[in-house]
Amino acid sequence: MGEPNTSSLHCDSNIERMVSMEVHKVVPPPHKSTLHKLKSRLKETFFSDDPLRQFKGQSAKRKWMLGAQYLFPILEWGPHYSFHLLKSDVVSGLTIASLAIPQGISYAKLANLPPIVGLYSSFVPPLLYAVLGSSRDLAVGPVSIASLIMGSMLRQEVSPVLNPMLFLTLAFTATFFAGLFQASLGILRLGFIIDFLSKATLTGFMAGAAVIVSLQQLKSLLGITHFTKQMGLVPVLSSVFHQTNEWSWQTILMGVSFLLVLLIARHVSIRKPKLFWVSAGAPLMSVILSTALVFAFKAQHHGISVIGKLEGGLNPPSWNMLHFGGSHLGLVLRTGLITGIISLTEGIAVGRTFAALKNYKVDGNKEMIAIGLMNIVGSSTSCYVTTGAFSRSAVNNNAGAKTAVSNIVMSITIMVTLLFLMPLFRYTPNVVLGAIIVTAVVGLIDIPTAYHIWKVDKFDFLVMLCAFFGVVFIGVQEGLAIAVGISLFRILMQVTRPKTALLGNLPGSDIYRNLEHYKEATSVPGFLILSIEAPINFANTTYLNERIMRWIEEVESEDDAKNHQSIQYVVLDLSAVNAVDTSGVTLFKELKRSLDVKGAELVLVNPVGEVMEKLLRADTGHDIMSPERLYLTVGEAVASLQSAMKAPTSNHV
Questions:
Q1: Secondary structure, 3-state, 354-370
Q2: What is the DSSP secondary structure assignment for residue 527, as one 8-state letter?
Q3: Which of 237, 411, 421, 493 is deepest in the core (most CB within 10 A)?
Q4: For the domain that residue 593 is a member of, what is the CATH number?
Q5: Which residue from 362, 311, 372, 307 is spatially nearest to 337, judged by alpha carbons?
Q6: Are 284 and 343 part of one and the same domain?
Q7: Where are the extended beta strands (E) located within 90-217?
Q8: One domain for residues 449 and 544
């Protein structure tokens, strides 16, 4: 006699153990009215953070106070403010002001706006954010990417050179719509919309935009007068090398010198965070030194272009410039929408980053409202799109900012500059502003994050590359649209092609796992056990029906080849199926009919609340949800059905 088959003995022992297993009854979920379910769904969708819980059990006076603090966070920390905190905030406010002044002028030029608008945008919005914002570290002002997008989009239809007043009008109107969109997202609690910009999309988009911004600065760094209006890599480089006769060695020498100084200062601060003031003060010192050199050597007469005269004084009102009609309405709506989304995403991401570092919470909806309102008000006070900038906020954090008062200190410093110091910038060379912009956007190219995305998810890495190359070679808007489109396509693929797995038993247990993942798992003769790992709806029912029937055909062909017992039970583990619609219910009915023809039975395992409720409601004939075909776990289902297994039919004599 041959030795006994160990796998057969092991399978028999498993069967004996499972047959004796206690089977738990599957009970339907508690009844809830349609109104109650709708209320719960809306609450989880729009009020997942349950903002009203703090009002429970409070007196009327306390509720009014909490409501005011919710709308105006400054009322929460303001009463406890101290001189000790003020000292830290003054230092950090003055530090970020030294960075905000040159950056404000530079980013306004990047947006094709008068340089003074950049300083206006660093004065009013930070004051509003200090009252409405919930982040202690966010430093508010113009940012490079939003400036680039606004300038490039508006320039498609209106020339900032030939029609500067119309261009300025459109910029303020686009800022109004950006703020309106941002505030609406916060008020209506629709912040999840910005989540469609994934980490991979933003990483690629920011890196591509940084390259485009840097390329645009070649005009200033080389002293070129006639420069292309296009944004892509090829037309920019083509323009640069076709205009070599306009290159100015004086401009190149000054530009390279200050760019090296700024990059070295940035490197020093990265390597030694305690020396944050080196990179924070370097831009302003570069502006002061370069302005002094130009003035001393009359360099404006030797090929170095300068800003020119800037009007002093505080922000003039601009509500009369907002234009809500005419042929350019579509343009300002698109520009406002895109710049609003990008700036909002950046501001909230920066705020949450520093909140996590300091272990406090930033309310995303409050931030949307705060950023939106400061842009709405800003559009009426000669400001363009502003948000929280990472570079400025990092300096603010490193300088020891304790509260949003640092933004107020920065605004006061900008106010003094606007009132008394504007004539000093008359001889500031454009080449230094270009060097400041390049230094600022270099930090947007995040190589470590890109490498991390490559290691974790190759598809996300592909999305990141599409965003990067789309921005660099096609355009800012097109690159962003391509990346978002690919991300949405991936989501659609996950919805329409959900994962299904063939399960097997882990030896010595009643646990069932994916046969491809756990090599030691074994299939159970006469059973096809499948796990569906996604909601079942109209978008994937056809695929699931075809995939399950294909599983059956594949397993049956293997069983015939090995002379194994044919399939008598198809067990569907529904633990990961959290939702089903009417098409999904129909799927189960079609599977039941198909299996009846094959002489097999459909068994369901652990249908969760909503799924079970809909199946019970639709199964009037008790064909699908009969108690003998409904189990809590796969182990219990197999154990109970083993004893009822039909004897295998054999075609062999």
A1: HHHHHCCCCCHHHHHHH
A2: E
A3: 411
A4: 3.30.750.24
A5: 372
A6: yes
A7: 140-141
A8: no
Query: Integer distance in angstroms from the first to the last C-alpha of the chain?
Result: 22
63 within domain boundaries: no
Is 640 within the bounds of a domain? yes
DSSP state of 565: P
Sequential DSSP letters for 526-552:
TEEEEEE-S-B-TTTHHHHHHHHHHHH
Question: What range defines the domain where residue 609 resides?
Answer: 499-646
User: How many CA atoms within 13 Å lie on the side-chain side of 288?
Assistant: 9
Looking at the structure, tell me whether residues 320 and 461 fall in a common domain.
Answer: yes
Confidence of residue 649 (pLDDT cuts 50, 70, 90): very low
pLDDT tens digits for range 189-204:
887 777 777 888 888 9
Q: What is the pTM of this model?
A: 0.79
SS3 612: helix
Stretch 122-139: mean pLDDT, rounded?
92
**Is residue 35 in some structural domain?**
no
Query: Which residue, of 455, 472, 490, is where some domain finishes?
Result: 490
Domain count along the chain: 2
CA distance 516 to 504: 9
d(CA 233, CA 175) in angstroms, rounded, equals 27
C-alpha–C-alpha distance, residues 526 and 193, integer Å: 47
Which segment of 53-57, 140-144, 647-651 scores lowest on mean pLDDT? 647-651
Tokens of 303: 């090929």
DSSP 423: G
